């Protein structure tokens, strides 16, 4: 029989190993919760600071120019979405110390629905606050849906090199029926409704369906054109290309009546509004909410890990070599 030099048997060493492992796990859990407590403290401090700064309000800046930024694609799931922009517009127009509202635009456009909702809200706010002007300042680009929004402004200012216009509607599509046939791929899509699967890329073009979709796009285009005409009025110099989907430089846009003058955010605030102080009313995601969501996920994960360890349910780790 084998003997152990220190007088301990295999069972004793197993108990020692188990004790050491439990002690190590306890230390790991304690360290995790230490970091969680520190994280919670930071969140509380950040939340207090965020609310304190927010409670100051724009009125504490005195007379100022209210700025709302429209940057990037206009879509429901993007920062430039109708809900956020409408809330920002309401705050800016309601601020008594805001002498004017300026839309700072750098966008290729996006959803016609989102753009139209913002356009209508601007028109509504201008009726409620007739003495508070709204200007649009286009930097790099104000095209398609972004220009749709801009035409609701009293005046549109551009850079000579800005890209402006693109008054049109597009629905991208493609067809690969012959390619699929060569590859031996069969489309087994099931649909209820004669035209539910219209414009499928796996089918040849159906002229009736194509005409229907074109009619829908034309209807949205007419709505876009009507908004441009209503917003620009007699300043607009209509020709065959005005509503064709073309875009122009800032200088060309002024000549065509699509824009009014050369200007930047700062020059408009200084020379037009006469209020150089800029206050950004753009609705931004609450950073504290973001931290809390992430921290919540971490806390939940750590709690689950600790629970599994306590119950002895921690999965074995497999390493591939």
TrEMBL record:
Residues 131-272 form the Peptidase S49 domain. CDD domains: S49_Sppa_N_C (cd07023). The keyword Plastid does not apply. Keywords: Hydrolase, Membrane, Protease, Serine protease, Transmembrane, Transmembrane helix. InterPro entries: ClpP/crotonase-like_dom_sf, Pept_S49_SppA, Peptidase_S49, S49_SppA_C. The chain crosses the membrane at residues 35-53. Belongs to the peptidase S49 family. This is Signal peptide peptidase SppA.
């Amino acid at each position: 029989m084998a003997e152990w030099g220190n007088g301990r048997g295999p069972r004793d060493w197993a108990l020692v190993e188990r004790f050491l492992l439990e002690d190590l796990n306890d230390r790991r859990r304690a360290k995790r919760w230490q970091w969680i407590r520190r994280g919670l403290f930071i969140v509380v401090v950040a939340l207090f600071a965020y609310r304190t700064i927010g409670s100051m309000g724009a009125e504490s800046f005195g007379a100022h120019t209210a700025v709302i930024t429209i940057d990037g694609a206009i879509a429901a799931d993007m920062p430039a979405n109708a809900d956020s922009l409408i809330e920002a517009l309401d705050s800016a127009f309601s601020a008594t110390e805001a002498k004017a509202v300026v839309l700072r635009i750098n966008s290729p456009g996006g959803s016609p629905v989102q753009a139209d909702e913002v356009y209508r809200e601007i028109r509504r706010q201008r009726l409620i606050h007739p003495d508070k002007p709204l200007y649009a300042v286009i930097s790099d680009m104000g095209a398609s849906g972004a220009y749709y929004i801009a035409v609701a402004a009293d005046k549109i200012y551009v850079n000579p090199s800005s890209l402006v216009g693109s008054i049109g509607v597009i629905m991208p599509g493609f067809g690969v029926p012959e390619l699929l046939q060569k590859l031996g791929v069969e489309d087994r899509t099931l649909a209820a409704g004669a035209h539910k699967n219209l414009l499928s890329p796996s089918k040849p073009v159906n002229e009736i369906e194509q005409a229907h979709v074109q009619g829908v796009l034309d209807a949205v285009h007419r709505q876009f054109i009507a908004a441009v005409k209503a917003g620009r009025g007699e300043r607009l110099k209509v020709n065959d290309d005005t509503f064709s989907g073309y875009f122009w430089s800032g200088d060309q846009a002024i000549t065509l009546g699509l824009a009014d003058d050369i200007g930047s955010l700062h020059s408009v605030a200084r020379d037009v509004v006469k209020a150089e102080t800029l206050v950004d009313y753009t609705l931004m995601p609450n950073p504290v909410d973001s931290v809390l969501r992430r921290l919540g996920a971490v806390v939940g994960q750590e709690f689950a890990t600790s629970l599994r360890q306590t119950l002895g349910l921690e999965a074995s780790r497999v390493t591939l070599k």
